[in-house]
Protein 1
Amino acid sequence: MRVPLTAPRLYPAKSVDPESVCHFLDTHKRRSRCLLMPWGTYYGLSIAAIALTKDDGITAKGDCRRGDAAVSVNAAGYLATACWISTDRAVEGTMVKTVGTAMLSHFLSKNILQICHNQYNPKSNCAHFIGHALGIKVGDTNCYNVAPAGIPKPGLGFTIRVDDLSTFGAQTRACGRTSQQRFRTVCSSFQFRAMYPVLRFGWGETTRNMWESM
Amino acid sequence: MGRDDTKHVGIYVGGAVWHYSNSMRKVVAMSVSQMHNHYSGLDPTTWLFYGTFGP
């Protein structure tokens, strides 16, 4: 059974001045309004927005059209703001093709201490990284409420546990267990959907401690 | 899925698996084959899961 999304939003949904949140002021400031997205409900679109970085060539005037979205990634690497302008399916289709790698490249080769503003660095950071990368805050524990005392914290924490991600995945889209032989096939068959950047996750669980070597 | 620590998770997107390498202490991207080969010695007690996030 599909459970309605309950992910907390990081920012309230409200109309904001585009110049206060957008990276792409030259193009976005001419737009009529910019909505700060309620994270959780629209996180797919927010993620898609990250594809619209300067590296993706969406900087020239005229490249930014209705349906474009933008986010800013702060120095710590987590999503700080997200904005989205209207809807244009054709443009969204283009964005989806470039989402993911453009967004994740912000984190490539970074240590978790360069990603986590709470400076939380446990033995395993696989789920912790994903929490930051995708802005997921589900479960009882996060990197804010378990971070060491004495470190200034901005009050924002992300998921740190694999099982919480698993539960969240089961709540939002298909989720299941597969055999070792089929795992590669399942991964290889993943494709982006036409409209939304459906991110695919793979995770494993074993009675042995071999996963720590990853 | 239990709460023990013997789990690993990554993001599959754009033909690569992006995950945090605890041994290298940094974010890395590797192919599905590389990821799969890393666990070539999985025994029957190992479970593999997949799932998707999205609207």
Protein 2
Amino acid sequence: MRTTKLPLPLKRSERARLSRRLGFGLLGIVAALLVWKLISVAIGSSIILPGPEEVAQNLGSLLFSSHLWQAILGTLERVLISFFLSVLIGAATGAAAGLHPWFNDFLAPLLTTIRATPVLALILIAMFWLPSSGVPIFSAFLMAYPIIHTSTYAGIVSIDRELLEMADVFKVPPLVQFFRLKLPAARGHFLSGTKNALGLCWKVVVAGEVLSQPVFALGTGLQDARLSLETGTVLAWAVVTVFLCGISEFLLGLVAKRFALPQGEKAE
Amino acid sequence: MNSFELKGIKKRFGPLEVLAGIDASFNSSSVTAILGPSGCGKTTLLNIIAGILEPDEGSLTGFPFASYSYSFQEPRLLPWLSSMDNLLFALSGLKDKAVVLERAARFLKSAGLEDFGDAKPFGLSGGMKRRLSLARAFAYPSDILLLDEAFSSVDLKLRIELMDLFSLLWREEKRTAIFVTHDIQDALYLADQILVLASRPSKLLDRLDVPIARESRRYASKELIELEERLYRQILS
């Protein structure tokens, strides 16, 4: 009886490649910390640029304060609301624009205006209209929505014409074509759009919080620390924000991997 | 009985005249090969028959009321669906869901893919994908089956396997089949009648019936040599 051996050498080489990548990544972090430390020593003022050890100390004490965790929850809630709103509405309008060219033309001026508007202008305008906790949500939604819309639209219009022709020849009903052909075909573009949109939501929500000052928010923490000239604490809040953004992008990446087409699975 | 007829079909794409008046008739439940050199407009003619393209001039009798299924040169399978779901997708326009399931399962089995019903296209070999594409065309209960170079771009062994599968499925459910090829031996192996098209702008050069029963034909056999020579002469002229 023939048995198939597992390709162990390949697995070993993959492990080696992963270790090499991790090693270089760690080396990069150490090099960046070293450069940071050298510059902070050269400047010699912890108000302008504190050293990494001071920021680590501030981060340590921040982690033990309940204020940080309440701020994380508040910001996370705003990020998730703005992200899901932009995904829901962006996917719906992007799909509609992909299916109906007239709807694409209809939305084009609005989308161009939103894309061209600076994020700070949006935040300032929103501060006239909305309560402090609504400003970051509204601003992040407006920044992330065009990304989701455009990626969904691109996914729909880039569907293989030959597959559509096949579906038409077999008289596949439009609804079945939409759910079984068009949506799955568009998911690659859509998923990469969601990843970009999530990162942007974190950035814009925190920027909005810095200006609108909700009670529990990472942005409020940043701004309070800045006003007290605690540069180390500002950087500690920034580290928390970057970490949370990275973690959420990583988790979304796992979800996207689950739904993405496996490698080699292209239109046949 | 001539069930389907083309009269004076003309088609041009801008300044390029592709079909210069094609007349042909197709017996019901027969297999017709449209043979001709590359670029002579065979696929254009097939697309006009399928209603994908409109002719500039000419008439089609019987075709507008018929239903079609198509087997393309590429398998055109949805990569995210399993083999079975690819068949069900093509049949999703049919009302009776029990019939849909029965036909999909039957033709998957006839194509020798019953153990690969859950497999997605990337897990199938090139030959299996072609077989699945043929099974899909037969599973769809059409009046006319159109095949656009469905046996080309594969090695000889696989080509003969695919043509044998076509014969097997066709015997299971006989219907009018029209296939496009540039290979004389493929045409002689499968067709009841062969229509030979000239180079562009295309006209019907010749029409011949293959007098040997399909079941007793062998690929590239000596019994077909006279017809083969006649076809070569027509195409080379």
